[in-house]
């Protein structure tokens, strides 16, 4: 189930932009994402679809529940370390919104799975 909340769409746009920056910079891909980066993007979108905090979602770094597998979490951290500083120049609006979203410290209303 994909959420229609603009916050979730912004999260999707932000993670996709970061992965594109990383793949272009590290893997030197220009036309499309490489296979490992495509896997990370698909996994991140899947995790967003299953997020336990619709409507009050924090950024993943500030989330009380870490829903990424340890291996994928390490890959996303590496991507964010590389792409985060570059986001300011390539996607300033997304970078600013991500920073502001990260200031949300709760309380987070948890969705109860059906």
Q: Quick summary of this structure?
A:
The chain is mostly helical and 114 residues long.
Task: For this entry, give a set of tags.
4 helices; 0% strand; 114 residues; mainly alpha; globular
Structure description:
By secondary structure, the chain is an all-alpha fold. Helices cover about 60% and strands about 0% of the residues. The protein is built from 4 helices and no strands. It has helices spanning about 5-25, 35-50, 70-90, 90-100. Helix 1 runs antiparallel to helix 2 (about 35-50) and helix 3 (about 70-90) packs across helix 4. The longest helix is centred in the N-terminal third of the chain and has 21 residues, at about 5-25. The model has no long low-confidence stretch (mean pLDDT about 85).
